[in-house]
Amino acid sequence: MFRIRKSEVDKVNQDQILEILKETNVLQTGHFSLTSGKHSAEYMQCAQVLQYPDQASKLCNEFAEFIKENNISVDLVVGPATGGIILAFETARLLGTKTMFAERENGKMVFRRGFFVEPGQKVFIVEDVITTGGSVKEVIEIVQEQGGIVVGVGVLVNRSPEPVDYGVPLKSLLKIQIETYNPETCPLCAKGVEMKKPGSRGLKK
């Protein structure tokens, strides 16, 4: 059962969350070539905020407060690798629960390193960003396969163009839609704006 620690940080509103993401270079602007092949003027690199423990803690506190306000009992916080690992760890620290992470093995999300969910454990899942929600759905499946009970999901950034239904309460700290363009009709290409690829040396770290 969860044990909410005395709040170490104040609650933050949507504007403050957006400001944190801008200040820590999560929300980046420019001309980006995405893995889908499309282009965009914006890119979300959620790992950037994890460089700043104080800011990351403020965000994870929102998950903890959501759990408290909705009277959700939590025994374990799980995050998919790699984006959800630190967020799940900090959320669990604030709740006073255990934490672990799932990772891909041969393309499938699994628990390794001796991690397992005990039957009946109540599990809250935390992820950094969702677009289709597929990774979280995979984690839900392996938790349930081991007899765990998924009681909620928390995501830092919800980029899904359509509502995502996990069958449990979902807390999205920020909902945002980023416009993308086909290369042949990209207005940024037409203006000659320098192209950057996320993760490349040309992208500000």
TrEMBL record:
Superkingdom of the organism of origin: Bacteria
Annotated binding of orotate, by residue: T131, R159
GO MF, one annotated term: orotate phosphoribosyltransferase activity
UniProt xrefs under CDD domains: PRTases_typeI (cd06223)
EC number from the UniProt entry: 2.4.2.10
Identification of the protein by name: Orotate phosphoribosyltransferase
GO biological process: 'de novo' UMP biosynthetic process; pyrimidine nucleobase biosynthetic process
Phylogenetic lineage: Bacteria, Bacillati, Bacillota, Desulfuribacillia, Desulfuribacillales
Pathway annotation: Pyrimidine metabolism; UMP biosynthesis via de novo pathway; UMP from orotate: step 1/2
Keyword vocabulary terms for this entry: Glycosyltransferase, Magnesium, Pyrimidine biosynthesis, Transferase
Occurrences of domain Phosphoribosyltransferase (ranges): 56-161
NCBIfam families linked: pyrE_Therm (TIGR01367)
Top-level class of the enzyme under EC nomenclature: transferase
Catalytic activity: orotidine 5'-phosphate + diphosphate = orotate + 5-phospho-alpha-D-ribose 1-diphosphate
Pfam families listed in its UniProt record: Pribosyltran (PF00156)
Cofactor annotation: Mg(2+)
Residues that coordinate or bind 5-phospho-alpha-D-ribose 1-diphosphate: E127, D128, V129, I130, T131, T132, G133, G134, S135
